[in-house]
Amino acid sequence: MLWTVFIIAIIGAIPMVLAFIMATPETTKVAWGAFFGAGTYEGIQDLALRTGFDLEKFGTFSLPATLVSTVAIGWAWVGTWQAAPSVGGEIKEVKKAALIGVAIAGILIAIYYVGLPWLGLVKAYDKMFVAQYIWAYKLAYGDLEKIIHAPIFPNSGTLAIPLLPPIIQLLPAIGVAFWMLNYLPTGYLICSRYIFAWSFDRFFPEKFADVNARFSSPHWAIAFTWFLGMLGALGCYSLMVYGPAGLGAGFAALDTTWIWWFSAIPTCWAAIVLPYVRRDLYEVGFKLEVAGIPVISILGVLGFLLGGYIWALFIPAVPLWPDLFWLWIVWFIGAIVFLSMYTYNVKRGIDVKSIYAELPPA
Questions:
Q1: Which residues partner with 57 through β-bridges?
Q2: What letter does residue 118 receive in the DSSP assignment?
Q3: 41 contacts 129 by C-beta, under 8 angstroms
Q4: Model pTM?
Q5: What are the pLDDT tens digits along the chain (362 aa)?
Q6: How many angstroms separate the CA atoms of 3 and 10, rounded?
Q7: Assign residue 245 a region: left if phi > 0, alpha if psi is -120 to 50, beta otherwise?
């Protein structure tokens, strides 16, 4: 099933990448005129400028703006450093699979996410046009409809459509849709395993640790994950459709990407102190040192500084109300569940401190 979804996404991406490779800003302008009507390319540029688009401001590189815009990229990277290890219990050869799934996948994603924007934003399109189109789509949609009857949603797949022959124009859009679907089955698998592990550690109702005799999977944890996923999707949709403009978008961005990123910061702390606090573990693992300093500690420091800097940039960009408020509510509920189960376990005479010494069954 997962391979089928992945292959469809790849098939959709091939014509998109080829279209960007073969196009130039001049040929793109002609293609837009043929697809949407003469003058639409120039009309969009003019509309953006008339509605406040600042060529100097948005044409100047900004590191803070670049890092804040990495929500989507970070969302993809989550799958490499956290999603793959989370399903280690489902893998026969963890060492081999982790190397391929985390290291190599991370490199390929980096190449794709750097290469594709360069091909699309610099080579195929004038580097400011895509920004101007997004500006008009988000801030002047009514005026944009006067230029294009049905404005396309701006993403790499749809922006390739006008550059392709009619017979394959739908492929990039289908590919983009399946990019999203690639993560969803894995996401449910990961989250259900978290719930299973919490239950096994007695910090969540133990019923969710039950394993189905036929499928050898935690069926109650999977069902509960599905319920929470549907609840979250409906909640975000309702907020964005029926609430004020943009309500819920920041909450979704924080919850799906930056909260995952935050969990990497304690991992960086652990990487820094591991060679000194748990020398025994460090000695039996992969040792690499520079001038006597463990490389894992150096990487931990760099990861912590970069992660902290990105958080310092991103948090002020998200509204305190309602996005951060609701995020705190979710965290508060999690803390209540944890403390309640902790108290319950202590009253039952369970040695809470030794719970994590036992590994759940693979």
A1: none
A2: I
A3: yes
A4: 0.68
A5: 556 777 888 888 899 999 999 999 999 999 999 999 999 999 999 999 999 999 888 888 887 777 767 666 666 665 555 555 555 555 666 666 666 666 777 777 778 778 888 888 788 998 799 999 999 999 999 999 999 988 988 888 889 999 999 989 888 888 877 877 766 677 777 788 889 988 988 889 989 999 998 888 899 999 999 998 888 778 777 766 766 555 555 566 666 666 666 777 888 999 999 999 998 888 887 788 999 999 999 999 998 988 787 777 777 766 666 666 777 787 888 899 999 999 998 998 888 877 766 665 55
A6: 10
A7: beta
Burial of 160 (0-12, 13-18, 19+ CB in 10 A): buried
Instruction: Count each helix (H run) and each strand (E run) in the chain, helices first.
Output: 20, 2
Position 206, amino acid: E
Amino acid found at 13: A
The residues near 346 (Cβ < 8 Å, ≥ 6 apart) are: 352
**145: helix, coil or strand?**
helix
- As given in the structure block, the two tokens for residue 192 are 């259900």
| Structural tokens at position 271 | 């990487």
Token code pair at residue 233:
């999707």
